[in-house]
Write a structure and sequence with these properties.
The structure holds 2 protein chains of 2 kinds. Chain A is of the alpha+beta class. Chain A is built from 5 helices and 13 strands. Chain A folds into 2 domains: 96 residues, Gyrase A, domain 2, CATH 3.30.1360; 127 residues, Cyclophilin. By secondary structure, chain B is of the alpha+beta class. Chain B is built from 5 helices and 19 strands. Classes of the chains: A alpha+beta, B alpha+beta.
């Protein structure tokens, strides 16, 4: 082996290592972020997220943070002050190297859904976009078993993994000013449920009457938590609140 | 049964709401921090009354507000300048004043600034009809009670235990400027050189679509070097995100907890209040600062409140 190839293989190895190192950075005055999207698509979103859950749990034990917020294959740690920022900027990468895939003992939650009509005003258009029948879109969407990766955006809003790639659909060019609570939509490569009425640009295919956020509940205030799986059950009708 | 000190809303004004300093610890559930947009104004009002900093008061946004009192009690109005009166008697902002049972407090404005804070001795502790908030679930009490709710005609708000104030006292508020200090955001480098320059060097107009979730700005359109999909990350009040329209949005207390738009900068905590006090149509500028300068700015606020506390103790 001559020196040149040796060097080039060394460089290649080096590049791989650089690519495979998550970004750790300060966000605002008192937050630190670790971003692990560099492993995707070689590693699945779910596998990366399982390590994010592990890291979140590990950070929770330190009692140093006022909020620990997982995002899509990333984690943000909010601190009270700025004293420990530099410590965590160096420590977080170290913790990541120890991270294991955590399997949260998730429940399977079945969510009844009325597809189409006034509850899913974009279903027909979405089916047309994919050159599928509405029935086929419903079949594909409701046969998926989706894993809750994290909660965010609104109280109780689950980011779901596992949408059939044949249903990936661009967001609406002009977002709706108000989407009714319980609406289920597709936006890009994601499907999700709006817990409360909100503005939004996802294509709406159905609606559920299951509350996703009940703050007064003595148990969990959210219907689902990370690690749970969700299945949509097509039903002919549901009773919706008048509001 | 002892009488509960309370106030009755005769006129609610526009978007008036009961606010404290919000809460942390629930962002992983998608629950935002909430609380007063101009935190310093609410703290100032509470300090002048001997309340805890986080006592709930009323955030006023615009219009005419009338409140009737069932008790003799001290109150303070801080933040935006409102025209305040009790009957024919005019009341100063940033001073504590006493109102008597049966009298009506009228607030009209704002004459300058955007949001005023009415704090009351003892603080607002709940709605009279709904009873007191449940204390066993912090999250439950934040969503079931009056906290964060928009005031309506006829609402009755219960007040906590009054203290032992005997004389008026006032404070000098810190001056407003439209220069808002910010740190570069995680995705600053993804923007074109031109856009980076425009962000710091041009002025931005606050639009009518602004609310407690975000201050929406209009100005030069900002663009990325190349279009790219971003994954959702945690965001926070002060985060400046740039949606495809190229017009930045500064997230405020009621913002979502995660977002997928590129984040060009973060307003420093010490200057977030300025966004609460900018009116639609007014212009702001962003000033690039370092994390150390952000620390210094927080320290200045600490000093302000330290001096205020000393003055209150000496004169109170």
């Amino acid at each position: 082996m001559n020196a040149e190839t040796n060097l080039s293989s060394h460089n290649k190895k080096l590049t791989m290592t650089i690519e495979q190192t998550p970004k750790v950075y300060r966000f605002g005055e008192s937050a630190v972020v670790i971003d692990c999207t560099c492993y995707f698509p070689q590693v699945s979103r779910l596998s990366i997220q399982r390590k994010i859950w592990w890291l979140a749990e590990r950070c929770r034990l330190t009692d140093e943070f006022i909020d620990i917020v997982p995002g899509m294959n990333n984690l943000t740690l909010f601190m009270k002050g700025t004293n420990r920022i530099n410590y965590w900027l160096t420590q977080l990468g170290e913790c990541w190297r120890q991270a294991k895939e955590m399997s949260l003992s998730g429940r399977n939650v079945e969510i009844p859904l009325v597809y189409g009509g006034e509850f899913g005003p974009d279903l027909e258009q979405l089916a047309g976009y994919h050159q599928l029948s509405c029935e086929e879109v419903i079949r594909r969407h409701s046969s998926g078993r989706y894993t809750v990766l994290f909660l965010g955006f609104q109280p109780g809003f689950p980011y779901l993994d596992g949408l059939d790639s044949s249903l990936f659909t661009p967001r609406l060019a002009v977002p709706r000013i108000s989407i009714p609570a319980g609406s289920v939509g597709i936006g890009g490569n994601q499907t999700g449920i709006y817990p409360a009425s909100a503005p939004g640009g996802w294509q709406l295919i159905g609606r559920t009457n299951m509350p996703l956020f009940t703050p007064q509940s003595p148990g969990s205030p959210t219907l689902v938590t990370p690690g749970d799986t969700v299945q949509f059950i097509p039903v002919a009708s549901l009773e919706f609140d008048a509001k | 049964m002892t009488k509960i000190n309370s106030i009755q809303v005769l006129k609610p004004g526009m978007h008036s709401s009961v606010q404290d300093l919000g809460c942390t610890g629930y962002r992983h559930l998608g629950v935002t921090t909430g609380g007063a947009l101009d935190r310093h104004a609410l703290i100032l009002a509470n300090r002048l009354l001997g309340n805890s900093d986080s006592s709930a008061g009323i955030e006023l946004t615009s219009g005419s507000v009338e409140l009737k009192f069932n008790c003799d009690i001290w109150f303070v109005v801080t933040g935006a300048r409102y025209q305040i009166s009790i009957g024919q008697r005019d009341i100063w902002c940033n001073w504590r004043n006493k109102i008597k049972a049966g009298e009506t407090l009228t607030l009209r404005g704002p004459k300058s600034g955007m949001r005023a804070y009415l704090a009351l001795e003892g603080g607002i502790i709940g709605g009279v009809e709904n009873g007191m908030p449940e204390t066993d679930s912090l999250l439950g009490s934040r969503f079931s009670g009056v906290l964060g709710a928009v005031l309506k005609d006829g609402d009755r708000l219960a007040l906590g235990q009054a203290g032992t104030i005997s004389k008026p006292i006032g404070a000098v508020p810190r001056g407003y400027s439209n220069e808002i200090r910010a740190l570069p955001g995680p995705e600053m480098s993804l923007f074109s050189t031109e856009s980076k320059k425009s962000f710091w060097n041009t002025s931005w107009q606050l639009t009518n679509e602004s609310n407690r979730m975000g201050a929406r700005l209009s100005g030069t359109s900002l663009s990325l070097l190349q279009q790219q999909d971003m994954e959702s990350h945690a965001v926070m009040p002060g985060t400046i995100q740039v949606p495809p329209s190229g017009q930045p949005i500064v997230l405020l207390a009621d913002s979502q907890t995660t977002g997928g738009y590129p984040k060009i900068a973060t307003v420093i905590e010490a200057d977030l209040w300025k966004l609460a006090q900018t009116r639609p149509g007014e212009e702001i500028r962003f000033v690039h600062v370092s994390p150390n300068q952000a620390d210094d700015a927080n320290y200045e606020w600490e000093q302000y409140f330290y001096r205020l506390q000393r003055a209150i103790e000496a004169n109170g």
